[in-house]
Amino acid sequence: MSKKNNEKLSVFALGGVGEIGKNMYVVQYANDIVVVDAGLKFPEEDMLGIDIVIPDISYLVENQDKVRGILLTHGHEDHIGGLPYILKQLKVPVYGTKLTLGLVEAKLKEANMLGETKRILINADSELQLGTIKASFFKTNHSIPDSVGVCLDTPEGTVVHTGDFKFDQTPVNGQYADLHRMAEIGRKGVLMLLSDSTNAERPGFTGSERSVGAELEEVFRKARQRVVVATFASNIHRIQQVIDAAESTHRKVTVIGRSMVNVVTIASELGYLNIPEGMLIEPEEVNRMAADRVVILSTGSQGEPMSALTRMARSTHRKVDILPGDTVIIAATPIPGNEKFVGRTVDELFRLGANVIYGPGSVSGVHVSGHGSQEELKLMLNLMKPKYFMPIHGEYRMLRQHGLLAESVGVDKEDIFIVDIGDTVEVQNGVARRGAKVQSGNVLIDGLGVGDVGNIVLRDRKLLSQDGILVVVVTLSKQEGNILSGPDIISRGFVYVRESEGLLDEANRIVTGTLNKLMNENVNEWASLKTHVKDALGRFLYEQTRRRPMILPIIMEV
Amino acid sequence: MSKKNNEKLSVFALGGVGEIGKNMYVVQYANDIVVVDAGLKFPEEDMLGIDIVIPDISYLVENQDKVRGILLTHGHEDHIGGLPYILKQLKVPVYGTKLTLGLVEAKLKEANMLGETKRILINADSELQLGTIKASFFKTNHSIPDSVGVCLDTPEGTVVHTGDFKFDQTPVNGQYADLHRMAEIGRKGVLMLLSDSTNAERPGFTGSERSVGAELEEVFRKARQRVVVATFASNIHRIQQVIDAAESTHRKVTVIGRSMVNVVTIASELGYLNIPEGMLIEPEEVNRMAADRVVILSTGSQGEPMSALTRMARSTHRKVDILPGDTVIIAATPIPGNEKFVGRTVDELFRLGANVIYGPGSVSGVHVSGHGSQEELKLMLNLMKPKYFMPIHGEYRMLRQHGLLAESVGVDKEDIFIVDIGDTVEVQNGVARRGAKVQSGNVLIDGLGVGDVGNIVLRDRKLLSQDGILVVVVTLSKQEGNILSGPDIISRGFVYVRESEGLLDEANRIVTGTLNKLMNENVNEWASLKTHVKDALGRFLYEQTRRRPMILPIIMEV
Predict the structure, then answer these.
(1) Which position among A37, A168, A178, A196 bears the catalytic label?
(2) Contact A492/B460, CB-based, under 8 Å?
(3) Which of A217, A441, B80, B138 is 20 to 30 A from B90 (CA-CA)?
(4) What CATH number does the domain located at A209-364 have?
(5) What's the whole-model pTM score?
(6) Mean pLDDT, to the nearest integer, of B130-146?
(7) Is B325 marked as binding a ligand?
(8) What is the structure's pLDDT at A556?
(9) Chain B partners of A453 at a C-beta cutoff of 8 Å?
(10) Which chain A residue shows the shortest CA-CA distance from B399?
(11) Would you list the domain boundaries of chain B?
């Protein structure tokens, strides 16, 4: 009995609070750890040269024997994208619904890891006993089918994780959020709710995906030439609606962009897309068909530089050109940080003579969010009636707003835990408090390197990007203590060399002068010579240009 | 007479079409050139290390003897910020209203150019004869006082340039847009209208600045502690309303941030700000005063990393800390591209316990735009009734939308000229057509360098920022044809060197092997040696890391 009282429930995030993306949440009771999601995020603008960012999972690796599995709420990159990296260090089973596992398997196959990973198919009715923790699920609405919330019954009480969700009262696939099961869970009692905060700043209700379908059909019908629709590759509901609108307006659809082709293939194989026979055509066929019989479904809704839409807009796509009079629909809202890229793509499309439909979904009518707004967040809170509340999935300000929403529906302020990654909330004998911090952070992936680019490398990249570099090389004689060759000065990213000969000649004279003076004074230690050269040259260049390039003095000795 | 018929009117932009900012427009008739505005813009994210961007004015410099002057519409940076650079090459008089010239003079003083620049004060009733071109003005509403539109009567007809404008029916300074003069100009006949497209994508009317005042007062009244208001330094109407709201809620105001202090000083000296005696306090006094008696007026509404608000949010401001319970008002909308910076600042402020009022003006109530929305743009078009129309001030998509608005009020499609910088529209005998292109472009300023950073330097900075640099140095013997010293490999921004010794050792062996092999084959030309080293090393590093650092082989010979 006394042992029982010492056990505690611990809930924390390794990613996904205080940031959008990289979602990973951990629920631990005694020796049983359950992980929810394993996402990646894209680098911040100060992470130069970095490809993607995953959570630091040191805590899980250290406690590997306790980790009972990773439960996936849905198949978006920010929830499954970290798996190929994480499963290399953490050999644990992965649980997901059919579509989610389908997307995971494609990912693992590409990473040559399919064989070594235990994958367990679940559905919304599954129940799993993961040590002392019993996991069950409930269906939710989101911008990808087969999304679930997770209910974890622990000896200390029930923890509910909503996953990403909205309440769509008219879902396009007829799969309603399971209000009844949520009500049942809430009735039985929820100790702690972790709920999606992405749209916590947005008043009201998020529109139904179905509203987009009618608008798409209207645009398709009016268009006299080809229609291009750019949206998120993973938004299978949207893709279905594009296909439906194409069918009812007698158009054929071609799919462009690697990720879009992948998702359409997997989703239709698994039965999540209903594509009439003969509806899909190859991109090569587009030019042979009447313009008003074609829809091009494409990636690039975020203006990503290498995406299909961006290449079409720049007339550099191998297969498809935008022609004057084509209609381009950007059926997505720019993710913060991407506004400029999207704007530029729209500009290019207009220049080509296209009619572009873009802007916030509320204006364009061709996009709705996959995340619930304030009224839906309150509805979830009222269904679950949690004792404790932890807003998840969002920047700090969104977590904060979600906290205020929870207060507004009656959750006590001191029962709301707004946490950073690594902050634990511990519950023992029904009482929650903040516990010790566990190791957490960003692991940066650059090429094949996982975590090998740290602050020093990033600082150097930043410096190099601002004012470039000057390399100063000189060969000295070990015996004579004089200059045998050089100094040679090579610069990159600093000034246009051909127009700056005078400056660089003078720089050369300063280096020679500095070295000769030092060597005459019998200063011969490399470190000292280098420091003096760096200082003298840096001072001179700053005076002349107000720039501070990185200066790399290299002394060779023969 | 035959000579007269050969003369033509030419209108073009050297900046400000197809881009926000860097505004500069040129109207030329025969040997008379009038320039409207001389702005700067801030660098795009691919212009690494660049401080600011100004227009290429080669055309004006080549025709210096014809340039009659630069007319300034108002005192914002994107209309006057290029002057210190431009006036170095172009010795022409500058015309502006009182506040505009006040701000220009502060700028020229800082650049030590006040003495050499001819400045001519105008007001909305001024008339100037600039060669064959007669310039007059009309008052407009904008987010800075003393804004005017420009009316240029030429022998070919009248060209109107609106400057930045909105129609504020209840302006806070009682200075109404001069509807009557605009009507008069329109009645007499306008050949070509150049009109502000900034908000051409936005339906309806822009709100009155006055609506912000009531909201500010309400927030000030409710706040129990200090209030921080961040807004654009140049928004003098907003600053006046902060001062008014402070007065009516018995608070004192302190001003923080260099540009805010400058503007407040100039505007109050010139009578554009009405500040009650004793209202302003020094930042040092803030901590000594009761928290509910203080307003802090600050820069940083765009989350700029070095601004006063950002430093307060990060608790690194020298004089002012944000305390739990303080209210922070961000009275501005993020400029596209700045959303993430503003978001981060809001996050930090919330973390400090502040109550933050932020978001689009339509939600927060504490901001309205200074630019007219679609209904106001149509009103301007209907007042001026131009024969030809050229939308200005905006990205291409905005110019396009403005063109559609013009069509909707009856301008013929073929009389609408959507142009890029350097595209000329020529009018001769009443007929407009596109003419030859004049030289135009971006001049990048980096430190003291004006235009010396070009594509090669930027490309190198980009490369350096992504995967860093490896410098490979080796000293060869001229006689023996062997390696005397090295190869030494120094890297920056590539990998963390201490953890990559094996990789760099192997790289070293590859360089040595490549050089020895070549020299045994009597390949001795440096260029060839360098190329082989670069290729072999590049291949090896890409295989090992999937990164492509810049490789700089340097061969010294003794």
Answers:
(1) A196
(2) yes
(3) B138
(4) 3.40.50.10710
(5) 0.90
(6) 97
(7) no
(8) 87
(9) 495-496
(10) A347
(11) 2-204+370-450, 209-363, 455-557
pLDDT digits (tens, 9 = 90+) for B1-40: 334 568 999 999 999 999 888 999 999 999 999 999 999 9
CATH code that applies to domain B2-204+370-450: 3.60.15.10
Judged against a pLDDT cut of 50, whether residue B558 lies above it is answered with yes
Fold: same for A7-204+370-450 and A455-557: no
Amino acid at the residue A60: L
Closest among A519, A557, A558, A554 to A537, alpha carbons compared? A554
Please indicate whether, in this complex, the C-beta atoms of A359 and B201 are within 8 angstroms of each other.
Answer: yes
Catalytic positions of B:
196, 371
Residue length of chain B = 558
Residue A491: name the closest of A433, A545, A413, A442 by CA: A545
> Rounded to whole angstroms, how far apart are CA atoms A92 and A114?
13
**ipTM, 2 decimals?**
0.87
Question: Which positions in chain A touch B351 (Cβ < 8 Å)?
Answer: 396
Compare all CA atoms of chain A with the CA of B459 and give the residue at the minimum distance. A493
Looking at residue A44, the DSSP 8-state letter turns out to be P
The answer to whether the CB of B86 falls within 8 A of the CB of B57 is yes
Determine whether A142 is an active site residue: no
Cβ separation of A461 and B493 shorter than 8 Å?
yes
CATH of domain A7-204+370-450: 3.60.15.10
- CATH number at B209-363: 3.40.50.10710
Say whether B496 and A544 touch across the interface (CB within 8 A).
no
Q: Calculate mean pLDDT across residues B343-347.
A: 93
* pLDDT for the residue numbered B2: 39
Handedness of CA B53, B55, B58, B61 (dihedral sign): negative
- Judged against a pLDDT cut of 50, whether residue B187 lies above it is answered with yes
Of A201, A469, A556, the CB nearest to B488: A556
Q: Which amino acid is at A550?
A: M
For chain A, residues with pLDDT lower than 50 are 1-3
Q: Nearest CA of chain A to the CA of B265: how many Å?
A: 29
Letter string b/e over residues B69-94, b meaning 16 or more CB atoms within 10 A of that residue's CB:
bbbbbbbbbbbbbbbbbbbeebebbb
The shortest CB-CB distance from B452 to any of A465, A492, A499 is to: A499
> Roughly what angle, to the nearest 10 degrees, separates helices A209-222 and A236-248?
40
**Chain A: nearest CA to B254, how far in angstroms?**
27
pLDDT at site B1 = 37
Percentage of residues of chain B with pLDDT beyond 70: 99
Do residues A329 and A227 make contact, with C-beta atoms less than 8 angstroms apart? yes
B552 vs B534: CA distance, rounded Å: 7
HSE-up of B363 (CA within 13 Å, CB side)? 12
- For residue B3, the model assigns a pLDDT of 44
CATH number of A455-557: 3.10.20.580
The tokens describing A292, both together, are: 């008003």
pLDDT of residue B5: 61
